[in-house]
Each structure stands twice: as structure tokens, then as C-alpha cells.
Specification:
The structure is a single chain. Strands 2, 4, 5, 6, 9, 10 and 11 form a seven-stranded mixed beta sheet that branches. A four-stranded antiparallel beta sheet has the order 1-3-8-7, with no helix packed on it. It is built from no helices and eleven strands. It starts with a strand and ends with a strand. The chain is mainly beta.
Length: 128
Amino acid sequence: VQLVESGGGSMQAGGSLRLSCEGSGFTYSGTCVGWFRQVPGKEREGVATIATGTGVRKTYYVDSVKGRFTISQDNAKKTVYLQINNLKPEDTAMYYCAADLGGSCYYRDSVQPYDYNYWGQGTQVTVS
């Protein structure tokens, strides 16, 4: 199982960016792919998750990012995206994507690190 994030960088507040998470080595459809972020000295927090697969329209966002973050997927590319609009300095963090092969997002509205089995290496987002 491999997850590779990309799209991070240094941005100005108020701007937008899109993070990508390409998955391989597992049955993509029917899993959950979540985005998390972590700053030094703090716990990793989930921000959004999506149920993968064609015909599925299930997403979940934590309250703090609703309205600014959008998670989406391209099944053909086995890629999940995280669009972040109106960037704020407090969005500065290492962003990780992770796969939950147990599909917790299908039956639970949450995005908790302990549900996710496989993790990418992370991509840094810095907002000034």
C-alpha cells in the first residue's frame, strides 16, 4: 500500500491550493481516504474524509474547516484531492493523507487517525 501526497508549498493568506493523494497497492474502491494535518508539538488532527468508489457521495469534514476545505476524488486516477480556499496562517501544517481499508467513514461521521491503516509521507503547507 502506498499513498503519495503532493501539492503543498508556501502560500499567501487568502490564496488557494489543492493537495493530491495518489493511492496504489490496495483495492481503492470501498475504502476511506482521509486528510490530516499536524503541527510540531500537537497531535495529528483529521480534517476531512471521503468514501471512495463510483457512485458514492459520502464525505465528512470537521467543523473547523467546513466551507473552506473540499475533498474530492478521481476514481480512475485513484487520487483524492483536498482543495483549500481562503488560506489562513493557522492552516500551516504538514498535511497527510491516509487510507482506512476498514471503511469506517461509511458508517461513522468522523475522521480519527486511529481508524486509518496506511499513511503517506506528508506534504508541507505554509501560509504567511
